[in-house]
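Record type: monomer structure entry
Structure origin: computed from sequence
Chain ID: A
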Amino acid sequence: MRSDRMEREAAMAAHDRTYWDHCARVAGMDEAGRGPLAGDVVAACVIMPPDPILDWVDDSKKLSAKRRELVYEEIMRTALYVGIGRASAQEIDGINILQATMNAMRRAARNAQANIYLIDAVKNLGLDAPEIPIIHGDAVSYSIAAASIVAKVTRDREMEKLAEQYPQYGFAKHKGYGTAEHIAAIRQYGPCPIHRRTFIGKFL
């Protein structure tokens, strides 16, 4: 299992090295929170140096919450640039989740000054350098995987804070996703300001 993980991480770093060999600043971009019923969609733009290659930089979904937190701190200490962008529930309702995600990504990249952007699946952002959309990029690219971890940890922490403001919904546990517990709370208490009305209509 350990060797499989290490081989995968080495392949992800090797993928990005083909870009590092030609570009000084290679940005990875990913988002967290496209699917939940509540909260912002959060995008991260991360520029990692070619060296050192950090351990455990992988698709955030493959890491435990504890491991993500540890790797997040390492990324934040090592990265040349980290940008965070958000789109609120109201923005998502107003223009749809894809367009809101694209806006969040543009905001995350605003000050990156990257030479190239490796982006998880999304294309045509209109950034200031070439964009390379990569399907399942968080499992292919070291830079995108780093961005996936930053986006996920950032959003999870924000949902945990919002749980203090809206304790009846259990946001700290499910982070806004449509669990049975969350849906039951929506039906009992109605939506709160961070719920996405276009996502929860069928549950009301």
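Annotation 1: The first strand starts at residue 26 and ends at 32.
Annotation 2: The radius of gyration is 17 Å.
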